[in-house]
Amino acid sequence: MIALFKGLGLLLRDNELYRSPFENQVAHWRNLSEQQIRDEVATLAKAKSQWLIASIIGWQAASLLILGLIAEYLWRDDFHITFTRVVVVIGSWVSILFVIWFMANMFDHQAGFERWMKAFNSRARISSNADTVQCVADALGMAEHYPEVLDYKQAVTARRELRHEDIRIMTEIGRMKQHSELVGRLNHVGETASHRDLALQPAF
User: Fold this and answer.
1) How far is CA 155 from the centre of its chain?
2) Measured distance CA(2)–CA(109) in Å, rounded
3) 24 confidence band (pLDDT: 50, 70, 90)
4) Cβ(43)–Cβ(168) under 8 Å?
């Protein structure tokens, strides 16, 4: 169970990192070493197995406990089995399980199955399965175009292999630089024509 708590700790740390400013995400992934990522992946793999087992046992236990409580409440005074009572038991049980499932589905984005997959994918090596040709091409174009993206790439490859999250970060750095350039061009577009029109106006 120690691995489970360590894995959940990694997920919570990742959640906090993704809510932090982008500069903090860049600094974190730039400074990660190959051994650190391998250790994290190994911890996540063990924790995920324990999490799946605990989830199945917990779900079955909660399901049976809820069913028992509903049945005990309806048959507390007498033990006559009627069609109405059976329908009430099954309907109540299904309704409560749906509410629990809905709450678990919301939790899934923070520490559930979806979040485990995101943690693995972010640490995965670049491959055709995890990264599309377009994603890699975008990151390549950004690295060739913007020195900041190339600096990040060189800083990372000096310590380890590029990972899926590095592709995302490189693309995002490039996108931010591209956005700044476009905003600058937008702010200055038409200024020359405007100045010329003002100069041609008669001074009276």
Assistant:
1) 24
2) 22
3) very high
4) no
